């Protein structure tokens, strides 16, 4: 059977817009593949390649601009990097499914062009493979989409190309690409995955880096999440059932607002059994402190309603791990000091937090560093997704930045006993002052009360003398 | 109003056999349906700080609590020792006080408004007890890592208990779709209706076992396995939802030693079958917390010991459950891995004394631990035989404790026609393992042959052969592999055997080990003897190793592979040798 892909209609206009300008464009196809149906959610043009020293040398910029006029000038690494960054923005269950190209050459016929396409796909595959926790490569298929629109004829062709294998004869298959006039329905699944773990810091001879520690957290989180049991709306469901069947089941209960229910998100809860794979030994180590890893990863995934519960479960699990991996990578890339135990007694690492950005009828995400405004998200949406949104479109409250006062409190708490002693001393001082003040009030009131008699006594004394 | 009172027949039995110089004991029981059921007791050894009832409670299944005191003497009076214990009774407003005098006359009283009110009680026999109650066993592994200090361990254990009691954990009943939720969730359970009881769930789980159980009225202890899962997502609709994004805080300290280990929680609770599944949640939380307290005490004790004070020599705590026949309830012990039973005798002796158990046989060694796992072999098949009503002048003496039935063709090993004595020997060996005398694995045929070659009893050609062995060889092996001495009894003919009946009675009453008997071409295991002192009529309880069928209790009993045999079972013309393994008093 020919692989069929459903795409929103605006993608056609998007391609035509570039094709009609008769410019060469390459970009990524983002979508979701499930057993029942394959949907494309968005096409995102790969931004123009920027040369690092472009500002100093104008000539090289023009050279570069010249070079990317056709496919052969495209850098594989540049496209792969784009795919890497875009993957961070995708919720679980969504993947970079392939590339699109608008050009005047027939990329499937010309062997030079076609080998370039293959090379781009394979390079991207390799790059995305480097970090397994990013789930960059779609685990369900090794066939990537290649969509081509001829700038001359405006004819659209789509084929799949196999990646990741060393076979010389790459398998190429035709694809039936369909545009949908009506927007695709999505079932949203939400959860807040919570972390609250304390680990000892074990310093080996080589020292320890933040990156290394994050990697360890990621590994253990991945293992835990993989082993967890997932409930949807508080119930354990049959994994082979389709999501839409759950919606149907819900209907008769409150049939009046059934249409609203369709759009309502499902609440997911994850239950983790405690690890059984721990080594059966007592480890005895010298440690130099402790790590407290806490907070939430908000997760919103969007599934085609025909997808099975198992596919939805896999998507939620991918989403949490992918989000964690994205934050850690972004955080470590921005780090100046990678030492986990710097001079300070307490060290705080706050990776960027997740925000949601609307794309079509669903949401993708972006990450904001502490102190960054939502406007920053507009930038990455424009750069990486080739999309214009406004600041108000960004959903910023799915997660909140860490409260720094909380950190200060912890800092004080951990600093040592001397600090702890201070409030006690202070209160002691307050106590004594209080007593003194009370005494004073008493004396004054006695004086006032017996003012007459005291005066009398004094006058008597005075008259005697 | 004071509750109705029921007392387990085990407690009555123990009280009437108890011989102690102490003045007071503690009573343990559980409340169900307005009834107080007394399940256990201990003798309060006041001079020993560590073995107070508080510590002992941690060794008992959850739901069993301190419920009163037993006073050994003639009259009731509120002594301070009595008062101290009574103050700790939480389970009921009316603590129970049992008075038992020298003649073993027993009177039960409830303490109502500081006055003793004598009360009637009902005795619950063993069969009834196991029919009405079942055990829930919670298994989970909690990762533990903390500073290797007293405060480090105490803090982390307290945190773990807090976490478990926070309502965030859920429990999953093995083999079902039933999950129990805590207060952090909107619903109490899923997978069944909210009114369901634990008994109903178990019966629906395996209806065929129900009919089987009725057929052979053995006292099967029902254990429901449960595991723990932690809710790791927050409730989206909760007002208290804190959405702070993930962050990492590192606190530096002076370098210190840390321990990291998997903390295996394996804990029991006893509940009535009519307990609602909804109510099981709090029971399981309490059960987990009790286990954590016991684990904590074991870890702290290890940390306090010389040489491992810094944690370097800390060993993994391992949990064992025991169901001594004398007690009729479980005792859970946690011991450090790898420490031999022999070097923990002192602790066990104290426990024996506290529970009023005999000091002559092991009860709390690793081998004594309760296990449903017997490698597929039948355990104590003779218990399925309907007991004969007692007759005057007739003495019945059986082996004590547990053994596994070894017979032909087991373990995919064809020993049909030559391996009967080997199998009998294996049955005896399994008895020594189950009674805690040894942790050595039951030897295979080859290992038995190796042993005999090694001690020079047999030439090396014996190894791998299909040659028979007899009672003396069994004796040699037991001595070499276990250090167990045996007595050999020789009978010239099968008819002469019955002269030894009183001796066999004595053997079962004192040592209680299975006897191997070899005569002619056959070997059997004797599990018990019935002797009529007037008519000299003797019957033998035989376990036949020549059985080649499957592990089916019904077949084994109905076809007489395990059963009572008259004297004519023995060949009148053949010589017989009996190997009577002897036990030494030990704990």
Automatic annotation (TrEMBL), chain A:
Key words, A-Z: Membrane, Transmembrane, Transmembrane helix
Protein origin, superkingdom: Eukaryota
Location of region: Disordered: 44-63
InterPro entries: ODR-4-like
Cellular component per GO, a single term: endomembrane system
Pfam families (alphabetical): ODR4-like (PF14778)
Low complexity: bias regions: 53-62
Subcellular location: Membrane
Transmembrane segments: 429-451
An individual GO BP term: intracellular protein localization
Family of this protein: Belongs to the ODR-4 family.
Protein name (Swiss-Prot/TrEMBL): Protein odr-4 homolog
UniProtKB/TrEMBL annotation, chain B:
Domain (UFSP2 N-terminal MPN-like): residue spans on this chain: 1-129
Top-level taxon of the source organism: Eukaryota
Pfam families: Peptidase_C78 (PF07910), UFSP2_MPN_insect (PF26560), UfSP2_N (PF20908)
Domain UFSP1/2/DUB catalytic: 396-579
Keyword Manganese annotated: no
SUPFAM superfamilies: Cysteine proteinases
Signal sequence coordinates: none
Gene Ontology cellular component list: endoplasmic reticulum; nucleus
GO MF annotations in UniProt: deUFMylase activity
One GO process term, biological-process aspect: proteolysis
Keywords for the protein's UniProt record, in alphabetical order: Hydrolase, Protease, Thiol protease, Ubl conjugation pathway
Occurrences of domain UFSP2 second (ranges): 156-371
Assigned protein family: Belongs to the peptidase C78 family.
Record protein name field: Probable Ufm1-specific protease 2
Gene that specifies this protein: LOC113523369
